[in-house]
Design brief:
alpha+beta; TrmE/GcvT-like; 2 domains; 9 helices; 19% strand; six-stranded antiparallel β-barrel; Iron-sulfur cluster assembly factor IBA57 homolog, mitochondrial; five-stranded antiparallel sheet; Gyrase A, domain 2; CAF17_C
Amino acid sequence: MGQKFCGANPTSRAWSLSRESQQLVHRISRTAISVSAFTIKAMKSLLPARVFVRTPAVPSSRTPFICSSCRLSGRRFAATQAGPSPPKPPAAGYSLLSSRRLISIAGVDAPKFLQGLITASVYNKGTELRERGFYTGLLTAQGRVLHDLWIYPNPNHYGLADAHKSGLLPGQAFLIEVADSQVDTLMKLIRRYKLRSAVTHHKLELDECSVWTYWDESYHGTEYPDKLPRHGSEAYVAADSRAPDLGYRVITPASNSLTVDAERLPEDVYQVRRYLRGVAEGPDEITPDKTLPLDANMDLMGGIDFRKGCYVGQELTIRTKHRGVVRKRILPCMVYGEDEPAPQDLEYRPAPGAASGALDVPGGTEIIRAGPQRSRRTGNWIHGVGNIGLAMCRLQSMTDVELPGENTETPFDPSQEFVFKSSPSEEGAEGGKKLKVKAFVPQWMRTRLAQSNTSHSRQTDE
């Protein structure tokens, strides 16, 4: 008979309060959504109207492919390159190497510091410093090339402040030549390795110092040509002994242009001279952190001293020299069309239409045997100009060079031709005619390879 009050039940009261809270939250949410919708609508009204235009589909002339690799294999290269080729190098000439930069490094510990970094030695015998500039490299800890360099004595103290010049003894100042695109990277590397060494380093600007190359193929003397030095003590000359007749490197203040009795030519003419001799230079041709120094022929070009003490990356380099076999090397190559006979001699042809365009072939393009059968890679293209270029080639596949202690199941066939992988053997692909490529081994390289192999065999027998 007692009356029941809803408010007297605690559970009922809690449920009632909870329900009121839910209703309040619901009303607030609806209000917020309405305000947001109104705000978005107002903002849209301020924007310009969007006009949609349907572009009619253009029928593609490409043959449909299942994957991108199939499309790549269907691509062909043009038979001639778009731009003009550099002229054929004359017997004598000189060029400004604007692609190269200089770093000055000096101090009491400068010789010792460089000795622990580079692949060549800064000393002739014992503690006697080398008086001439020399070619060398700087490797990673894993033995891969980071920089290909030139080291020069710096008796004129180029790039040094007066405060740093005082107190320097002969042989405590050097110039490091490196690719222009790598100069800042090398500066950071020197700073990282310097630690507490008593050395200072400075990047020389283009208006401070210049690097030149000069050549005269008619001169075969052991000393420098008489007509080369024209600036007395201001110019520094070093023989470029990487390959025969490559010429000389000359360092001058930028204010003094090199003056010799020869024609001044653009730098790409020097590039042609290097390619004809199989000499790679700079990061575009010696891929940093990937190329081994022996694959880049640094051993054949005098850039490695296998008798010196420790330096960065020495372990793999020494082991490859004494226990391993170098199966691939950078070689000069000649590119020609599919309708042309295979060339017998390496020859640069700058005339448009006379030969195929090596410049059009992308770096890294694979080289394979010509023919309908599937072929494994025999090389990789690096860079070219005109109808010549450089490629990383497997010696046993693309040349008649015999490797010590190596037997191949497929001997070298002189009649075998090679093509770029992106040039298919089948007809009907779009683009120009496919290109063929032939590798050559210069005589200087054969001679030094034979000397290296003889030394390798002698050390193996011992």
